[in-house]
Amino acid sequence: MHFIVNGLQHDLLLDTRMSLLDMLRERLALTGTKKGCNQGACGACTVLVEGERINACLALAVQYENRPITTIEGLGDAEELHALQRAFIAHDGFQCGYCTPGQICSAIGMAREAARGVPSAVTTDLVMEEVELSHDELRERMSGNLCRCGAHNGIVEAIQATFVREDAA
User: Fold this and answer.
1) 72-103 exposure pattern, b = at least 16 Cβ within 10 A, e = fewer
2) Does the pLDDT at position 100 exceed 90?
3) Contacts with 81 (C-beta within 8 Å, 6 or more apart), sequence order
4) Residue 28 has what pLDDT?
5) Spatial CA neighbour of 141 closest among 164, 160, 122, 115
6) Quick check: helix, strand or coil at residue 76?
7) pLDDT at position 168
8) What residues are paired with 52 via a beta bridge?
9) What is the average per-residue pLDDT within 20-42?
10) What is the architecture of the domain spanning 2-74?
11) Within 10 A of 166 (CB to CB), how many other CB atoms are there?
């Protein structure tokens, strides 16, 4: 099977039952994507596929053959961090850091969803071309990503600093 991960091509022979998460971690040694609950409840395994966020623990790798996959390792590096990675540092958006890769990938996907006008459970105007990321809107959209050590306020501040326009705040 042929995979495109972080812009690199990978040809792998896989068991068709292997999750995308296990492929990333075990076959490609991309361990930034975390295995938390392995049931899709915590969001630690969130990655981007064609720019959309998914829980890699719930996805079979074969479903994503030939589709661009981005993990935390593909967003930035030590030389040039992604803007959201820099914001997490500036706003103290992590303590243990275990959920951080999933939080960051999820926030990037979430911001793209809002920019396309995809509504959430708290969106009041369902026909907006772009959903403004209010405090409640942002928290609802990120509710699938859990932080167990209490850095949630810093995470929200980092996301707001990166994706919320000043006139929308």
Assistant:
1) bbbbeeeeeebebbebbeebebbeeebbbbbb
2) yes
3) 89
4) 98
5) 122
6) coil
7) 47
8) 49
9) 97
10) Roll (3.10)
11) 5
Residues making up the chain, counted from first to last: 169
Place of tokens 């392995």: 38
Enter the tokens of residue 3.
């995979």
Confidence band (pLDDT; 50, 70, 90) for 166? low
Single-letter code of the amino acid located at 101: P
Q: How far apart are CA 33 and CA 25, in angstroms?
A: 7
Q: Which of 61, 153, 58 lies closest to 103, judged by CA?
A: 153
For residue 103, give both structure tokens: 């939080």
Helix (H) or strand (E) holding 4: strand 2-5
Residue 25 is classified by DSSP as I
Global pTM value: 0.93
Residue 164 falls in which region: left (phi positive, over 0), alpha (psi -120 to 50) or beta: beta
Helices (H) and strands (E) in the chain, counts: 5, 5
pLDDT at 126 exceeding the cut of 80: yes
Domain ranges of the chain: 2-74, 83-168
Alpha carbons 47 and 59: distance in angstroms, whole number = 11
Residues 83-168, CATH architecture? Orthogonal Bundle (1.10)
